[in-house]
Amino acid sequence: MAIAVPQHPLDPLSEDEISRVAAIVRKERGDARYIFTHITLREPAKEVVMGYFGYDQKLPKITEIEREAVVVLIDRPSGLVHDIIVSLTKNAITGWTKSEGQQPTVNGLEMLEAMEIMKEDKSVIEECRNLGITDMEQVCIAPWGIGWSDIKGKRWIQAICYLSTSLDDNQYAHPLDFHPVYDVNEQKVIDIIVAKRRDSRYLRPTIPMTNHHYLPEQLGQEKLRKDLKPLQIMQPEGVSFTIRGRELAWQKWNMHIGFNYREGLVISNLTYKDMDGTVRPLFYRLSLAEMVVPYANPYEPHNHKMAFDVGEYGMGFLTNSLKLGCDCLGSIYYMDAVLNDLNGDPIWKIPKAICIHEEDSGLLFKHTEYRTGKAHSVRSRRLVVSHIVTAGNYDYGIYYYFYQDGTIQFEIKATGILNTAVLAEDEAAAPYGTIVAPQIDAQHHQHLFNFRVDPMVDGINNSVAETDVIPSEHPVGHPDNMVGNGFRAVTKVFNDTDEAQGVANLEKHRSWKIINENRIHPYAKQPVGWKIHNPSPPTLLAKPGSIVHERAIFATKNLWVTKYHREEKFPAGYHVYRSDPDHKLGIPQYIKGKKNVRNKSIVVWITFGITHIARVEDFPIMPVDIVSIQLKPTNFFLGNPGIDVPHDDKKTNRSCKL
User: What domain of life is recorded for the organism (predicted)?
Assistant: First the structure.
């Protein structure tokens, strides 16, 4: 299906482009005392791309777009950060700044490098011997971000240590009680923190040695279920979507599929063809912009655990190479990804990084006319664009679903293995965790995701409205509420960034809409729009003033609206790693100055997620916990946009009666 086409302005950098950019920087720099943390596309401004494709006739027509890259270097061992802009069009560096006291995303290769050095460190070896471990091949080290400390500019990580009884053992069944602290730039262990016991007669716990396996070869074939018959998905005439380069067309949808080191999968230039054939612009850019996983245990070293997986590690760096028939089922189209290594070379290749396929999703609509007995039902099909990342112990399936009725769904399936800590035999996990196996504590935590929505709903200027549903203000018996059943929707449109902050309210059935006030629906007499449906709206539980609260202010509310700015893509800030809570990076900076966000080019930030009170059933491997949000057309079309989907029957889908 893929054919050679001219480059799209939002296409990720190619291998050749990454090499060219690195060569330009090396020539200017001249020495070798640095590493490349990332080389990625500097996306053109929104109004430039919209003018290029003609999404808004009020914008000037653009015929050429400069191709640019963003490069981040770190000096070793000082840790000084260099932010560089390279123009591939001009074959030259066009911007170079130094960021004092900040640290960017940790390249995955830095983590692998750290693991090997820590295992050979004398202090780590001695700590293992104190626990009776003499074979360092049995020790597993999981590098994590260390949260924050008052020593600025240091690129430190913490390590959570485990014992492994064999190559494929579930190491999280054997947690150790100490955490090395490692300086990535100086490449050495600088401290070891031993977790103190609480309410225990033991100074240090023994290592729990019982295995808790989950791989089928470890469980044994005799323990696997025998009553499952094959389930096959077939499309004998092929798929219904087409791909041209990285542009994807399916039914009435059209979009661009992007990928970068930080957000991973990015959907851009999303349009929908109306029933009269008009192509209507909907969303300029959709991405998982940040997430935070704060843990509840308040004692050191566990209170260092506040992972910002997007900004600290990068979803692109963490992306899996997918396996046909397992991760993706059916007729699959894959897209590969390429990233740079620490030398700036494009050798970090991820085959099958992005999965694209179709799947049945139940009924689209149905009605049975009781007078005649005639029933009409249409099955729904959805397009799926996805990738899967592994962030240490957790795995996240990240899915974009596009439906035939115009609905867009962004879903995350959280799975993998609980982050575990060791307990002494007489020690309790409560109130901050659950004992999921003897001496194994799974600490309570949250997974709070921030979905960045950059809209272009029928044009570049949009607004956001908040709607509450309230009972009638009139008492029962009033002429306007005679039997007391009245209720109504009350809507207000946000004017500025001070107003445009929202928290879910289930009692008021609160919802938000992205609207275009310049386009009034002919029937509803309301602005055309897209409703935000967020059924999973927890917010940050950490208290104001806490380190994680001040670093992750984006997670304290379910909705923010900011004025579009080309460089404002990340709600916790650009350089997140060990960010200073006093600086309040990201959204707090974007909303300063009470900016006007009504009928402007805007960005909407949606927070949703999971508050995970661990269960025994989540161990040794966690069944998927699914959370999602939806964007649904609201007074946008002239009717059900899926009404023209043809009826399916047993001849086409080969259903049979047993």
Answer: Eukaryota
